[in-house]
Amino acid sequence: MWEYTDKVKDHFLNPRNVGVIKDADGVGEVGSLACGDALKLTFKLDENQNIVDAKFQTFGCASAIASSSALTEMLKGLSLKEAEKITNDDIAKYLGDLPKEKMHCSVMGRDALQEAISSYRGETEKKIEGEIVCECFGVTDRQIEQVVKENQLTTIEDVTDYIKAGGGCGNCHEKIQEIIDLALGRERPVKKEPLKLTNIQKIKLVEETLEREIKPALKQDGGDIELIDVDGNTVLVKLRGTCATCTASEVTLKHYVEKKLQELVTPELRVEEA
Amino acid sequence: MDTIYVDNNATTRVAPEVLEEMLPYFGELYGNPSSMHAFGGNVGYKIKEARAKVASLIGATPEEIVFTSCGTESDSTAIRAALQSYPDKKHVVTTRVEHPAIKNLGELLSKNGYRVTFVPVDSRGTLDLDYLYNSLSEDTAVVSIMWANNESGMIFPIEEISREIKQRGIVFHTDAVQAVGKIPVDVDKTGVDMLSLSGHKIHSPKGIGVLYVRKGTKFSPFMIGGHQEDGRRGGTENVASIIGFGKAAELAAHRLTEYMVKVKKLRDKLEDEILARVPNVMINGDKDNRLPNTTSISFEYVEGESILLMMDQLGICASSGSACTSGSLEPSHVLRAMGVPFTAAHGSIRFSLSTYNTEEEIDFIIEKLPPIIERLRELSPFWQETAVAK
């Protein structure tokens, strides 16, 4: 059983503003039957671009219905500019918080709002932004990046809780981790003691990093890499598979392999092709 | 507000007769059944009695009954015992609709050097027997097929499957946790080698299970320890619960007909009335081949958790195969294996009755459920579209 706050229960059992505004200024529709939740949000503006009315229809669980109901209450009386600033966290806070696994319900509210505002401004074309990362739930890299930044998410599980990405087959987990790392500009939580590595330790760590981090990433594109030698701080490698013939292999070597090794082994390392 | 409990495949109430039988063993009769003195020995005697009652319920002999901590432990013990007994064989066969106790064990084994076949079911929930038999080989160590499914209530033809498996000299285990007490289960007639039972599904407490092990079946214990359970399961006995299980087994034997007639009648009434009163509803699984107490109903265009919580407001306890109730994002693996469309799986509700349910309770659900569905559909954007399209 989920631990819903009284406010969530209230908005679920007594949802406010159910329905569709016939001559709405903004319409946002997100989600689908297959995904398990969907929301249709409509709002009406007055001459000063203030939201005078907002209504919703939602298919989904209690927290999805409560988030939608809460959103419509929050919207009324706001100017379009103010409405634009509403985040999923604002919706969750309005409800006195949501269970972690249900945060995606608040994100759905935020997404519908953004879409409704875009539709009002005639920007319906740029509906899907970015590239699809999670194919199970059709989530793009831009969406993941946004939710990570807005909510300071740090793990793949967090991302799944907030936007569903990664909750199906799990094939995109690595990609999600990359987006998290990039978005937060942080280093992987790997023990890093760059000074005082003995030669043997260094070689072992280089080997491990290649196996664990670099090879799987290259293999996704049909490439591979082989460690030839470690001479002082110079790592000699050979690129294999599609990497061997790829014109961008120099870029891969310097910008990916070398960077990863510097980050995870020691910053002095240089990577060269044998 | 009264509680209307129609979630008996999840767990059942402890029968008052069972509780009464157990209470002295939480109190003054605290002896260890292994002790040499009569104070402990008398407890051992009660355990012997309980063992005989459980054996009698499934047509086994008392020596073939091993008490465990739950159905999951029984399942794990059975599979691991078979694999350890035939260390050269690396193939395991089970189904796509097993309880997580077997499903997740199978997935773990497949990552640890075993080949695991998950036999599919069709849209009615019927097992693909040809697929099952064709998957068998010299390398197959054990086949584990549930007797009845916890979500759809589907019953698998265990007697026929057992015959085929045994002909090939392969160990056959069945998870009969949902079947026992609801339909006739006879290990002698079916010839299964191992069978799992759980106490709390038949009105005894949680935390007690049984593994039936046919005499002559190669076995090695999962829990290593003392000589308890004839060396097949170490650890001091959960005395009170074992005694409770014995009593519950006795009651289950007496109430079997009631399950198959009275409970079935109530289930059918519930199902028929819901189908008659609510549009866009479907029953998941083959109606003619189910447990008498179970129905899995999908309400299109609404989501299961919402239905459950609305019913909860009225004291009605059921469960759902929807994604939201499980904490995962995908609906139940059983409904997906049956190919139930996501759109219907998300709105699936399972009612599972027991002999404690009354006609008044069923009437109450029949009266209260349709307005709940209607209300949630009014909230749903898809329902409006459908209504307009018609």
SSE map:
The complex is a heterodimer of chains A (274) and B (390).
Chain A: H1 6-13, E1 26-32, E2 37-45, E3 51-59, H2 62-75, H3 80-84, H4 88-94, H5 103-120, E4 132-134, E5 139-140, H6 141-151, H7 156-163, H8 173-184, H9 199-220, E6 223-231, E7 234-241, H10 242-245, H11 249-264, E8 270-273
Helix pairs in contact in A: 1-2, 2-5, 4-5, 5-7, 6-8, 9-11
Chain B: E1 4-5, H1 16-22, H2 38-58, E2 65-68, H3 71-85, E3 91-95, H4 100-110, E4 115-119, H5 129-135, E5 140-144, H6 158-167, E6 171-175, H7 187-190, E7 194-198, E8 209-213, H8 239-277, E9 281-283, E10 294-299, H9 304-312, E11 316-317, E12 319-320, H10 323-326, H11 333-337, H12 342-345, E13 348-352, H13 359-379, H14 381-389
Parallel strand pairs in B: 1-11, 3-4, 3-5, 5-6, 6-7
Antiparallel strand pairs in B: 2-8, 7-8, 9-10, 10-13, 12-13
What attributes characterize this protein structure?
heterodimer, A: 274 residues, alpha+beta, GMP Synthetase, Chain A, domain 3, 8 strands, B: 390 residues, alpha/beta, Aspartate Aminotransferase, domain 2, 7-stranded mixed beta sheet, 14% strand
Question: Could you walk me through the main structural features you see in this protein, from its secondary elements to its overall organization?
Answer:
The complex is a heterodimer of chains A (274) and B (390). Chain A is of the alpha+beta class and 274 residues long. Chain A is built from eleven helices and eight strands. In chain A, the strands form three sheets. In chain A, strands 1-2-3 form a three-stranded antiparallel β-sheet. Chain A has a three-stranded mixed β-sheet with strand order 6-7-8. A two-stranded antiparallel sheet of chain A has the order 4-5. In chain A, helix 1 crosses helix 2 and helix 5 crosses helix 7. Chain B has 390 residues and is α/β, with parallel strands linked by helices. Chain B folds into two domains: 141 residues, Aspartate Aminotransferase, domain 1, CATH 3.90.1150; 237 residues, Aspartate Aminotransferase, domain 2, CATH 3.40.640. Chain B has 14 helices and 13 strands. A seven-stranded mixed β-sheet of chain B has the order 2-8-7-6-5-3-4, with helices on both faces. In chain B, strands 9-10-13-12 form a four-stranded antiparallel β-sheet, with helices on one face. The chains are: A alpha+beta (274), B alpha/beta (390). Chains A and B meet through strand 2, strand 3 and helix 2 of A and helix 9, helix 10 and helix 14 of B.
